[in-house]
Amino acid sequence: MTDVASWAPSGGSTRDVALEVLLRGPLSRTELARRLNLSQASLSRLTKPLIEGGTLVETEPARDPATGRPARPLDVVPATHQFAGVKVTGDAAHAVLVDLRGNVLADASAALVDHDPGHVVDVVAALTHELAGEADVTGLGVALGGHSPDHRSVHRAPFLGWDDVAFAQQVEQATGLPTVLENDVAALTAAEHWFGAGRGLDSLAVITVGAGVGYGLVQHGRQVTHRDMGLGLVGHYPLDPNGAVCFDGHRGCATAMLTIPSLTAQAGVALGRPVDFTELLALARDSQPVARRLVREAVTALGRLVAAVANLTMPERIVVTGEGVALVDAQPAALRLAIARDRDPRASPLDLVTRPGDFTQWARGAAVVAIQDFVLRAP
Fold first, then answer.
1. In whole angstroms, what is the distance from residue 202 CA to residue 221 CA?
2. Residues of the domain holding 55
3. 349 and 371 belong to one structural domain
4. Is 70 within the bounds of a domain?
5. The CA-based dihedral angle spanning residues 28, 33, 36, 41, taken in that order and rounded to the nearest 10 degrees
6. Can you give the CATH number for the domain in which 47 is found?
7. Measured by CB atoms within 10 angstroms of the end CB, which terminus of the chain is less buried, N or C?
8. Per the domain annotation, does 47 fall within a domain?
9. Displacement of CA 10 from its chain's centroid (Å)
10. Could you report the per-residue pLDDT of 179-227, keeping only the tens digit for each?
11. By the 8 A CB rule, do 264 and 290 touch?
């Protein structure tokens, strides 16, 4: 286990300098001082212990864009720390090992044959040890589709059937690593904010579509958090007054219109046989009437949700991801039309980005939460 003091031993402004370089580096001293509103003398005082301790290093000489003069930018060495991240679903655990900047170094998965917390702890620990090998892992993040406002206990995880499980403590005992829990959408948003599509932006929205519908938001350079994150609130957002009904009795909500279980269940009933998501999309491309209608309604609902997020929060960029991200490209014209119908014609064009919906990305989000816990924890 790596000592937290090796990141920014004196905290405060010293940590701010290290964090700015981690998130924006490499940076010249002139640019770093400008970003943090520091004098050159103050910056020199703050960077000296970081360089001596190995948190920051001087890179190869480069021309400073601010002054035009040669300079040696400051940067971190991502390989100095490694973190594990595990995404737990109802069926499996997906794990990654990342460096200090969230670059994936290795990944592995294992099935869950039981939802008993002890079994899940064993699987998480085995995957972590498998990926770590002889490496010194600094921390572990675990993400799941559930509610964990204290980042230690799982208050509710419907896919696992859990209520009030002290999961982080059990994982720490099994792995010997400091462990932090997070809702999976919040973790994915953290990864996009720090090291993904939102890097360098002041605002970002993330919409996930898959087994459920999720939403994350960054405003003024900070991720928006709330004790209710993980309750699936956006899943109740109404999108179609004539749409299907979700398990909570809401007609045409995001859960009913967009989730893979809802879409495949509707297709199965209409066609009289089981239909998975991949086949549903293929049938829609082949103009099978039921499939084409379901996909068109889902794409239209997604467009309305994107427009609502854009109208209400005005982010610089919107990321759509998750296992159901293929809906974005299923009927592009229908998506554009749905967004335009709910937007003012004078509004700025949307910067809409899609990300792969594979579980490696979800696990990477969990690992980034562990990175955040490490670099932001008070020494």
1. 4
2. 4-76
3. no
4. yes
5. 140
6. 1.10.10.10
7. N
8. yes
9. 29
10. 999 999 999 999 999 999 999 999 999 999 999 999 999 999 999 988 7
11. no
Residue 68 φ then ψ, to 5°: 80, 0
Q: Report the largest interatomic distance among the alpha carbons of the chain, rounded to a whole angstrom.
A: 74
Which string of DSSP letters, residue by residue, matches 301-364? HHHHHHHHHHHHH--S-EEEESTTTTHHHHSHHHHHHHHHHTS-TTSPPP-EEE----HHHHHH
Please report, for the domain that includes residue 133, its CATH number.
3.30.420.40
Q: Can you tell me whether residue 97 is helix, strand or coil?
A: strand
Give the pLDDT confidence of 104-113 residue by residue, as tens digits: 999 999 999 9
**Does an H or E element contain 73, and which?**
none
Residue 226 in 3-state DSSP?
A: coil
338 and 222 in a single domain? The answer is: yes
Render pLDDT for 285-341 as a digit per residue (tens, 0 to 9). 999 999 999 999 999 999 999 999 999 999 999 999 999 999 999 999 999 999 999
What pLDDT was estimated at residue 67? 63
> Does residue 143 contact residue 95 with C-beta atoms inside 8 Å?
no
Count of structural domains within the chain: 3
Residues 224 and 184 in one domain: no
In angstroms, the CA 245 to CA 254 distance is 10
- The answer on 343 and 207 residing in a single domain is yes
Task: Provide the CA 69 distance to its chain's centre, in angstroms.
Answer: 38
Residue 312, number of CB atoms within 10 A of its CB: 10
Task: Please provide the distance, in angstroms rounded to a whole number, between the alpha carbons at the two ends of the chain.
Answer: 15
In a domain, 195, yes or no: no
Domain match, 50 and 186 both: no
Are residues 37 and 49 both part of a single domain?
yes
Residue with tokens 């379901």: 294
Residue 102 CA to chain centroid, in angstroms? Answer: 11
Q: Are residues 204 and 350 in the same domain?
A: yes
Report the candidate in 135, 144, 203, 136 with the shortest Cα–Cα distance to residue 168.
Answer: 144
Location of structure tokens 């995957």: 127
Question: Which residues share a beta bridge with 141?
Answer: 85, 180
In the block, tokens 């400091």 appear at: 178
Three-state DSSP at 155 gives strand
91 and 166 in a single domain? The answer is yes
pLDDT above 50 (res 4): no
Alpha-carbon span 202 to 198, nearest angstrom: 8
Q: How much is the pTM?
A: 0.92
| Cα(47)–Cα(54) distance, integer angstroms | 10
Single out the residue in 24, 50, 76 at which a domain terminates. Answer: 76
